[in-house]
């Protein structure tokens, strides 16, 4: 694991994730709320632009249609988006790992038809399942939510984690079944090792690195599903819906999570492209960062550490150099004399 911190790709990805997470807490601690600029920008006493304001020095990602700074909204919403995706992936792995080991160890004879039942799920987009299961939870009814924000977040995390547990468990079960044909597993079974001991002492240590890579892949998949749900107006933690028949506002996210920012601003892609591009670029950066961490971790576990080691340099005095040269001359003279004899 120490070699991971010498991998440039892993450090790059870790730095991007740390920037968004640490920056989100620090930004909210310093500024509290998102800055808002409702007045027109004036030059020489003349109004030139109003919300949505294009990117300027004070607003590097511009402002939305209400004057709120997009950079501030992205920074505050970063912790909700990234931590929710990590929680979904972590819960998914916690459930799928025991099921996968049980499938590959105790259900080897039934594994073929169980995989036959799970394989069709690969061809159905997870967003469809998410929309069907999460719409009653996230879409605010006319009388308002009956649950709190925390309860809706927990329900969404649990549902999104359970959706793909069968697929992940099948992958782990297939890998477990392959390991049972290795010589050291056969030797351990011959010596009388129980299945439980095989899982704890042999299978889990052998598959630990692959499961860490699989966890990173599940985080990326969760982020992609969040983005798809945002396009369908199902935001993390709930969608605030205005039922005013005359002057209803569009659905909005309760928090500033990126899926909500992207879904709310996508209709401004033509007139104010900086509104949807900000959260979209943030999604892309985090996904690329996780992919870089996975690649760096894979290279480190395979022994490919690319950062050069610092070379040790020895400094010697001029007297030592002269003495060595004198000794070399004397040896050359002796060799010449012996050659003449």
TrEMBL record:
It is found in: Cell membrane; Membrane. InterPro entries: MetI-like, MetI-like_sf. It is a multi-pass membrane protein. CDD domains: TM_PBP2 (cd06261). It holds the Pfam family BPD_transp_1. PROSITE patterns: ABC_TM1. GO terms for biological process: transmembrane transport. Coiled coil: none annotated. The chain crosses the membrane at residues 9-30, 80-103, 123-141, 153-172, 212-236, 274-294. Residues 82-298 form the ABC transmembrane type-1 domain. Keywords: Membrane, Transmembrane, Transmembrane helix, Transport. The keyword Iron does not apply. GO terms for cellular component: plasma membrane. Its main location: membrane. Belongs to the binding-protein-dependent transport system permease family. This is ABC transporter permease subunit. The lineage of its organism: Bacteria, Bacillati, Bacillota, Bacilli, Bacillales.
